[in-house]
Write a sequence for this structure.
């Protein structure tokens, strides 16, 4: 049976109508499903955490490759479908919870203690309404994971994986770049889902850096400087950082930028992550 027929069959059998407010767009393109799983490079000593398994289309492909899979799904209706569909598998755990409330550090620690799992990978076709909070959670909680392979809205994907200093870059670009090496895998048209989302999608792979490219002790301050720089995109960096109280006042801001050899008219989007590191070093207590 094709993925499309299988999806239609399951939806009919369980009387499922996709819930828009939960971002339910089910993937029905076999090529894309295979490509996601291949690009995640899953092997038998991996634990895969899948966020939002829905009806289980992606889960089915992951199950064949991973040592263990833990799914986190908010919609109770999906839970009983997944339990029915995969009752034969003893390497699948399903958690009925809001992904933003899950303690992944504890889950990973518990699984690693058991000794069968070497690496942890996150794989997901994410619900688009909470893409950014999910990614920020996965990165900021400093999980012991190797990679994140996700399908998200193309526009957001392009911002996340831009190189700092590119025209597509925003504050979040620097956060992703700080934690990960990123790669575009493929664009996915809306026809690959039912129901069709209004946007084009993109699969990206984020490989968590073992060594950071800048040395930062106070990450909160570092990211606050970057965020403040981008809050008023059209303003100069000097004005943004002064208005947002990163610089004590304009004169001390000018002094710092002059000492670093930066043009006083420079904007946040012109700075590399190392440039922001230089500003951080001048500001940190
Ligand atoms: N993985 C399936 C697929 O590819 O066909 C479904 C992907 S669908 C884009 C997103 C899934 O995330 C839905 O099943 C939805 O119920 C689930 N979801 C939405 N919000 C969630 C949350 N806060 N926590 C966990 N799962 C959530």
């Amino acid at each position: 049976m094709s993925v499309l027929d299988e999806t239609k069959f399951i939806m009919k059998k369980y009387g499922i109508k996709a819930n828009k407010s939960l971002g339910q767009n089910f993937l029905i393109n076999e090529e894309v499903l295979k490509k996601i799983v291949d690009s995640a490079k899953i092997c038998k000593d991996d634990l895969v955490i899948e966020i939002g398994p829905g009806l289980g289309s992606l889960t089915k492909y992951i199950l064949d490759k991973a040592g263990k899979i833990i799914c986190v799904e908010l919609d109770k209706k999906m839970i009983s479908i997944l339990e029915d569909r995969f009752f034969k598998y003893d390497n699948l755990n399903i958690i009925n919870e809001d992904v933003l409330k899950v303690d992944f550090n504890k889950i990973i620690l518990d699984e690693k203690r058991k000794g069968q799992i070497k690496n942890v990978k996150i794989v997901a076709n994410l619900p688009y309404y909470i893409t950014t909070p999910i990614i920020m959670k996965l990165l900021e909680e400093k999980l012991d994971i190797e990679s994140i392979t996700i399908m998200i809205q193309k526009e957001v994907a392009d911002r996340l994986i831009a190189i700092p200093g590119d025209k597509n870059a925003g504050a979040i670009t620097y956060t992703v770049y700080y934690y990960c090496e990123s790669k575009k895998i493929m664009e996915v048209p809306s026809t690959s889902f039912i129901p069709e989302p209004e946007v084009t999608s993109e699969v990206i792979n984020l490989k968590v850096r073992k060594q950071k490219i800048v040395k930062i002790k106070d990450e909160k301050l570092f990211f606050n400087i970057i965020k403040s720089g981008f809050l008023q995109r059209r303003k100069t960096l000097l004005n943004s950082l002064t208005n947002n109280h990163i610089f004590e006042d304009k004169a001390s801001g000018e002094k710092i930028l002059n000492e670093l050899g930066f043009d006083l008219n420079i904007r946040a989007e012109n700075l590399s992550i190392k440039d922001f590191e230089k500003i951080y070093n001048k500001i940190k207590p």
